[in-house]
Amino acid sequence: MPANVIRRDDGWKGFRIQGILVGILSKIAALLAENSVPIFAVSPYNTDYVLTKAAHYKKALEVLKQAGYAIVK
User: Fold this and answer.
1) Residue (of 68, 73, 72) closest to 28 by Cα position
2) Counting C-beta atoms within 10 Å of the first and last residue's C-beta, which end of the chain has fewer, N or C?
3) Which 8-state DSSP code applies to residue 19?
4) pLDDT digits (tens, 9 = 90+) for 36-72
5) Which residue has the higher pLDDT, 21 or 56?
6) Among candidates 27, 8, 11, which has minimal Cα distance to 19?
7) pTM, whole model, 2 decimals?
8) CB within 8 A of 50, min separation 6: which ones?
9) Is the pLDDT score of 22 beyond 80?
10) Which helix (H) or strand (E) holds 48?
11) Type and span of the H or E element at 29
């Protein structure tokens, strides 16, 4: 971290979404929201990343797995 940072928020974990990305982030975001998993999504050019606090990470993966998404580590 730069020395001039006033405030930071540690404790985030994330995963990358693989596959055809058209509409998938909105589906994943809605599914996680329905299960009370807060996220921060980042969508650079051709890859989407979903971040959540470490306390919610395991639940996020479980929700996605139960919904039929493949979890690759």
Assistant:
1) 68
2) C
3) S
4) 999 999 988 788 899 999 999 999 999 999 999 988 8
5) 56
6) 27
7) 0.84
8) 14, 15, 17, 25, 28, 29, 32, 39, 40, 41, 60
9) no
10) strand 48-53
11) helix 24-34
